[in-house]
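Friendly challenge for the regulars: who can give me the structure tokens for this chain first? No prize, just bragging rights.
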Amino acid sequence: MAGRSIRRSYTPIVDEELKPVDPHSPERPAQEPAGVVAERAKSALKADRMPTIYIGHGAPPLVDDELWVAQLAAWAKALPHPSAVLMVSAHWENAPLTIGATRTGTPLVYDFGGFPERYYRAQYRSPGAPELAARVKQLLSDQRVADAPDRGLDHGAYVPLTVMYPQADVPVLQVSMPSLDPEQLFRIGERLRPLRHQGVLIIGSGFLTHGLPFLRDFRVEAQPPDWSVEFDAWAHEALERGDVDQLTDFSHRAPAVRYAHPRTEHLAPLFVTLGAGDVAGQPLPTIIEGYWMGLSKRSIQVA
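First reply, four minutes later:
Bragging rights claimed.
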């Protein structure tokens, strides 16, 4: 972008005019099968702790995408079965950090509009996680933590979980993001890191690119816009280097950022994932890559 000095090993091709994509353009490139996803996930595991992951959660129709469903299901099966899931979704911002419902059967939050009625009938009755909620409060005892006992899981939480743990047999706790500041979220992740030694799977659920206002082709198999490809390539390089400083300073260093993230809530959960993981300059492996409706669904696992 003009006025910034950014080291790149690829050619930047931002589509500044945001021209509509030709609906007859070639289909999206072939994406990795479920078996490859499982092998990647297994190879990135450490024996003494659960990993922490960042996933693209998709919209409710994710459950109709056979490839993505197979990939997420294979990833979950490749991981140790968690004692609980701690979920940080792009769709819940509330300060101070707020703990959601801890009782089984709290109604889901259908925080989306314009979809067929069947998506509003989805259910996911995961067990509540009051013990995990208490532990989170202990780990964050130096800051104010609020409770929202009637706040159920939003679609950034339950949609991927219906694929990853379809039996709804894993206790799930969702907490809010108290801000979108990458450094604050990274520090929160650091404080939550001990949970991984207790079998808790910490999930940041967002989307690596999320420029919905700038999409022109809304087919699932649409060719990605140049701004989505460019931001994804930049993030992939930073992840491969384990360059957390580069990632947390994305608003100044990333190309195409104003298109890829006109608002940054879908990237923000990544920083909780990074803080909760062991990111001492080691490569941060991609487990799922590719595009969905032109948006990067790159998802990572941190040991």
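The beta strands are 52-56, 84-93, 98-99, 146-147, 172-177, 200-206, 286-288, 291-292, 295-296, 299-302. Residues 1-28 have pLDDT under 50 and may be disordered. Your move, everyone else.
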